[in-house]
Amino acid sequence: MHTLRVDSDETLTPTYAGRSFSHDIPKFVLPPKGLASDAAYQLVHDELNLDGNPALNLASFVTSWMEPHADLLAAETLAKNLIDQDEYPQSEVIHERVVTITGRLFHAPPGGRATGTATIGSSEAIMLAMLAHKRSWQRRREAAGEPTERPNMVLGADVHTCWEKFARYFEVEARVAPMAEDRFTIGAEQVEPLLDERTIGVAGLLGTTFTGQSDDLTSIDALLQRIERERGLRIPLHVDAASGGFIVPFARPEERWDFRLPSVRSINVSNHKFGLVYPGMGTVVFRDAGDLPEELVFHINYLGGDMPNYSLNFSRPSSSVILQYFAFLRLGREGYTQIVQSMLANSHALARRLAAIDGLAVITDGSEFPVVAARATEPELDLFALSRLLRERGWIVPAYTLPADAEHVTVLRMVVKENFSRDMVDMLGSDVAASMHALRSKADRRPGKVRRRPHC
Questions:
Q1: Which site from 53, 60, 111, 115 is most exposed, i.e. has the minimal number of CB atoms within 10 Å?
Q2: Same domain (yes/no): 159, 99
């Protein structure tokens, strides 16, 4: 959200000695006259030079590179609205294929009862899944003659902010299991005390935004099965696989985290992360059509034929879905496996470089997810200052504090994507070491500071 600058009279001034235009252009008011397309392009292009370099952005999980043929497909499909199934039927056919391939990757049960849809991202996917679980809970309570007020959901403090948005926007109490000094995920032990008859679902993470670790999904699944047997409470497990959904199936295909766990009723994934497509696209998949109440599905006919729709957004670009299908065809299982293994090798190499730097301790070593997180071992070393020093070299590496009950822990986190080479790993490792040396030298020069003896 942005405050509207309705009183601003700031302008863009002529560039290139006025070759393209010779008058000031207002920034926050529609110009009285337009510009030539090349002049408008140059203005916008030059302003965007101030953005960071996507290739050096280790803060974001989002895909920032695709092959030239993908760029061509994106341009060709920009004008197609995915919601308009009657006019663009083949795009909808590809949409169905993409959702089906994704569901089968997550071991959706055979029999044709699984259902799902592409979304703008994991935020929409999560909200759609939890809305369905909330409504299913309400219908079960109504059928039993029990009140439907004050629903709650159980989640860890390691969740993405979109979970907080869902709780606030859709009036569901968020029962949050806190972190601890040496634990940044949750399992059955943290979940069980928070469950009751008003719980609409439990959120489990396959790859957290904060550290790249995973919740103990198998223990949570076992807990929910036991709760159903002993107390008759059917509490679904939703797996937020935004980051890990396209990593684990290729890195550790035997790992049980998906629909192979009986309590898992829905899964979301961010295709625009390690699905290797540009933003914004996610997918939500339900184990069974019965997990999605029919009353939440809208049937639309004013664009042509009958079009069932379950979404928060309506119009949406088709290009991301088309690009995901391109990536599936282009890479196949073998290609995804090779890319994932390469990312993991590079992230693990980066972790080794950081672990060798005096003053840093690695929390996540990049061996399970292509994410490396580290904390300072000396209180005088400011990781926020380290992040700023790295930015001077062009690297975008975030520093932040961890969630509830671990707020005193500050981490530096790096996401290693497909286009981050081993050479870049070595360059980043060297720059982190040099920046750490600069920070330590500055700390050692403070008045009253006892100088450290150098490590041999």
A1: 111
A2: yes
What is the distance between the alpha carbons of residues 370 and 348, in angstroms, rounded to a whole number?
Answer: 8
Indicate the burial class of 194 (C-beta count within 10 angstroms; 0-12, 13-18, 19 or more). middle
Query: pLDDT digit string (tens) for 393-432?
Result: 999 999 999 988 888 889 999 999 999 999 999 999 999 9
* Shared-domain flag, residues 322 and 422: no
CA 127 and chain centroid, separation: 14
The structural domain count of the chain equals 3
Of the candidates 83, 119, 128, 162, which has an alpha carbon nearest to the alpha carbon of residue 280? 119
Q: Which residue has the higher pLDDT, 111 or 255?
A: 255
The SS3 call for residue 130 is helix
46 and 96 share one domain: no
| Helix (H/G/I), strand (E/B), else coil: 419 | coil
Do 315 and 354 reside in the same domain of the chain? Answer: no
Residue 258 and residue 112 in one domain: yes
Q: How far apart are CA 357 and CA 354, in angstroms?
A: 5
Mean pLDDT of 427-448: 84
Cβ proximity of 210 and 411 under 8 Å: yes
Same-domain status, 88 and 150: yes
- Type and span of the H or E element at 343: helix 319-355
3-state secondary structure of 118: strand
Whether 19 and 120 map to the same domain: the answer is no
Tell me: do 111 and 177 sit in the same domain: yes
Kindly report the pTM of this predicted structure: 0.91
